[in-house]
Amino acid sequence: MAGVWALILGTTASVSFARTGPVPGQGDDRSGVSHYFAGPEGLAIPTEPCDPAGPSATDGIMAGQLNPQLGAKMAGYLDAYKMSCARMVTQAVKDRGLNPRAAAIAIATIIVETSMNNYSQAVDHTSIGLFQQQDWWGTREQRLNPAYATNAFLDAMERVYPGGSWNTAPIGDVCWRVQQPREDLRHLYGIEAGDATLIANALWAGTSTGPEHPYGSGRVVSGRSADGRLEAFAAGADGVHHAWQTTVNGDWSTWRFVGGPRDAQLAVAPNADGRLELFALSDSTFDHMWQTGPSAGWSAWENFGTGGHRLAAGNNADGRIEVFASNTEGVFHRWQTAPSGGWSGWEGTHGGPANARLAMETAPDGRLEVFALSDSTFEHLYQSGVNGGWSAWENFGTGGRSVTASHNRDGRLEVFASNADGVFHRWQTSPTTWSAWTGTGGIRDAELTTSRTVDGRVEVFAINATTASHAWQTAPDAAFSQWETFGGGGTSIGAANNADGRIEVFGTSHAGVYHRWQTGFATWSQWAWLNDSGPAVT
Questions:
Q1: Within a 10 A sphere around the Cβ of 474, how many other Cβ atoms?
Q2: What CA–CA distances, in Å, run from 39 to 29, 77, 113, 437, 447?
Q3: What is the dihedral of CA 109, 111, 116, 118, to 10 degrees?
Q4: For residues 357 and 372, is the Cβ–Cβ distance under 8 A?
Q5: Dist CA 202 CA 285 (whole Å)
Q6: Which residues touch 100 (CB under 8 Å, ≥6 apart)?
């Protein structure tokens, strides 16, 4: 993947400058700084960093992802600095407990007012900062602090629109009424509403501070090391093979044979201290190994139990890993007794389908939920409290071939299952209720996996012996697109997110392991071998 993503990162000193251009003098006729800051690059006015640490690598990459998607003033002009400013605004909105629409309102305002520049020199009376707030909004230091400035703006928004009424008012009108420029400038905020929503959605997912969500399990799996590099594992007839990114978001190593159970089912989960742990279940044994330190090398294999059929692993809210496995007698589980610590013994779950395929997801409050699909039935169970015990099994549908689970941006869980008629899905309508099963079309008898785009949309991938396809939410928390062809057939499929949010998909066949990755916000590379072909996977 070298060369696919170039990080164009500007260095941010204590004072920097926007583009060269005329600077209006103080006292010029103006009501609302949008009168001056109509250009996307801004003016030759000193700026302050929005993030004291400066723009991040992800800010630069996300700007590159978003630029082709924008349609108004900032199209093609987002850079790492401007993205860092929008990120800090979005984080302030999230910390306040408001929603992505509030972030979009704030971002639309700073697009119009300053082209997303934190101006430190007043050119209109005493107006400075992202929102061009005059001295009655706060001290100079406060107005140049994106968190303070955003909260001051939101305080005014909630005074003008009490009781959350800003949620239903047009975004442009909210911005205009809070900022109070001249009437003839009112329309500018509405023009930026669509792009601001797109930026806010992308950042809202990227600044998530919610619970840890499980990686998918299967014959090929991937997890992200503490330093941001993806690590991939594939189960061959001779044992487990391992490859890893040599740089964050970058190239891959060659495959390395690491032994372990043959023809295994795999799952990976992060320890609370950042070390990844790999679990490998065959029909005769269950082993695990772990990183010896965050982003470090790997231990030798140790036995974890006897053989079984399928497995899933995830994290409790306190960071402890919990592992589920199925066999001919039902579903069993084992958990860490302390974060990054030792393990309990295996315990039954009082049933569960025999020889079930398993998937796990995390509710917004941190409770885990497990889905178990056999040839003849579908059941689920869930933690009755955060870090706590488990419910009894409940029926969730009829039998099928493969199951995968994901979560909407608003936290509601979404489950997909395949059978001989295609792919079906079911989603939470509230924290405790579910929709009916709904057909999506899709290919028959497919292996499934899911991931989420940088703006929080669920994307589902399906592969069978003859073809691969994918479908995605058309907007966060929204309906799904039609299925589109994603490549040729194979034996299994997995997915993970790069550190910059781009999805990377891994497919296996009798010839080896290949991958395909997002090259932009919604564009994809072609399939390629993951460095070399790796193990054949049946």
A1: 11
A2: 18, 10, 10, 49, 49
A3: -40
A4: yes
A5: 42
A6: 93, 197, 200, 201, 204, 409, 476
DSSP string, 356-405: -EEEEEE-TTS-EEEEEE-SSEEEEEEBSSTT--BPPPEEEEE--SEEEE
Question: In the sheet where 311-315 sits, what is the strand order?
Answer: 311-315, 321-327, 330-335, 347-348
pLDDT of residue 17: 35
Please give the angle made by the CA atoms of 460, 466 and 467, to the nearest 5 degrees. 30
**Amino acid in position 257:** F
Average pLDDT of each block of 10 consecutive residues along the chain (538 residues)?
Answer: 27 32 34 48 80 89 85 93 96 91 96 94 88 94 97 96 93 95 89 93 67 91 92 98 94 97 97 95 98 95 98 95 98 97 97 97 94 98 96 97 94 96 96 95 97 90 98 93 97 93 94 93 91 92
**Which residue in the block uniquely carries the two structure tokens 């056999």?**
374
44, 19 Cβ separation under 8 angstroms: yes
pLDDT reported for residue 388: 94
What is residue 480's predicted lDDT score, i.e. its pLDDT? 97
At 253 the three-state DSSP class reads coil
Q: Tell me what pLDDT residue 201 has.
A: 83
- The pair of structure tokens assigned to 308 is 């079984």
Contacts of 354 (CB under 8 A, 6+ apart): 326, 327, 328, 329, 330, 374
**What's the confidence (pLDDT) of residue 476?**
87
Distances (CA, A) of 255 to 278, 497, 526: 16, 20, 20
User: Is the Cβ–Cβ distance between 290 and 281 less than 8 Å?
Assistant: no
From first CA to last CA, the distance across the chain in angstroms is 26
pLDDT at residue 354, rounded to an integer: 97
User: Using the 8-state DSSP alphabet, how is residue 34 labeled?
Assistant: G
| Closest listed residue to residue 288, CA positions, set 236, 256, 323 | 323
Determine the Cα angle at 423 with ends 327 and 416, to 5°: 60
**Rounded to 5°, angle at Cα 68 from 65 and 71:** 130
Q: How many angstroms separate the CA atoms of 229 and 231, rounded?
A: 7
Three-state DSSP at 214 gives coil
